[in-house]
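Hello,

Following up on my earlier ticket. Below are the two sequence lines again, exactly as submitted.
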Amino acid sequence: MSRIKTSVSLYSLQYQYMNGKMNLEDIFRYMKELGVEGIEILPDQMLRGAPMLSEEIYKEWNRLVEKYDLGLACADVFLNTNLYKNRELTKRECVELIKKEIVMAHNLGFKVLRLVSRVPSWILEPCLKTAEKCDVSMCIEIHGGLAFGVKKTEDFLAEMIRLNSPYIGIVPDASIFCRRVPRIMDEYCRQVCSTNEELIGYVSEVFVQGSDLFALGEGRGLDMDPKLKSLIKDPGKDLFYASNVNGYENCDVSCLDPYVKYIKHFHFKLFEITEDGTEYSIDYKEILEYLHKHNYDGYVATEYEGNRWILPGVEIPEKEQVEKHQALLKKYLIEIQG
Amino acid sequence: MFDSNVFIEGSCHNATENGKIIGYEMQTHITYYRGIPLSMINFVEVEVDGEKVSREQIRFTSDNIDWFTLDEMETVAEIKWDYGMPATVRVLQEGGLSKGTHTVRLTVCTRTAYIPFPLEGNRTREVTIS
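Thanks for your patience. The regenerated structure is below:
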């Protein structure tokens, strides 16, 4: 039996936070009101000084966790390999940074650490003892455009299989299961960048045919799909769109088959809940049914990223989108899990 | 992509030290969705009334404690610019901006760990100095 739990990545409410409309406690309270079971956080986003948090910050965090009684789904961390302008960090420096992140996640109460795509596989073995001691799993994000077929991700997966530890896993992102490109991205690029219609139309057609621009480009060892490239008529208007579409893949859910036992958390990317209450690009029911079939016992997290495609001057509907998304997930989970 | 984070409305004014106007300053949020050490700020640019300010005139603080030149910031790995915390960009210019309205454009560019291109954001505001 699966036990799929709902969660929200607080990333979804980043503008509420940045613009001072909601502080961390407001967000915790809001999550509780929505009936969300767990939360995910980017410590670098909402916890000052991360990963070296002050006692004061830990104290406040513990107070909020206790008061609002929310599950702690996942801490999303990054590796600043380009911390300096003139060089990449050494292996030793990278390992030490990841260890700090593991210790911080443990101190905050998280058991899953999401490592951003492109974190090198060679950090795993030297960090494993720290992960075991802290009871925290190191999980690579499998994100559209940076997923299967990308060397750094494949290296990570191979190392994960070689080390075969319960403390190494994956966090798939639903951006690899886009059946259509987000129309809000089309509209944003149309209005803000004046991207040409032929290019936008071609991309839509590729998705209708069951493929995507990563598969036709980088997935085939090319820098870009040749047809896509030929439709970039004015780079100033078209390149932004042509580069961004790489981040939306149209994979079959069965691509997760070899890695199912490594799934520790799942990002349910959200671009736009439409008028009928479903998401424009992603069919979450298909993914939830897959996870149910494989007895997944973990969280799925709303990760609202439509925020970046809201037209200038228009209020970002973060709360509205999160609420609608959670309602959709709850409906599906009742249908699937009872 | 992060243009809306840049140049907080109403934040630009002349800066005074020891009773003397030493320049002007403005506040901005980070052009990213998370906090990063100051060494990962690729550059900051200011343009006033169509004229670019020289890099040497710019000073930056993320916490109102430590101020840096852009060259100095390249090695500042221990102090972060936290998300949600406005930083101050100051331009050293004796007398500051003259009274009246100016068109001020601020650009902030950060490096990120996994996105292959730097994240640049900019915003132009009409600023009135009274």
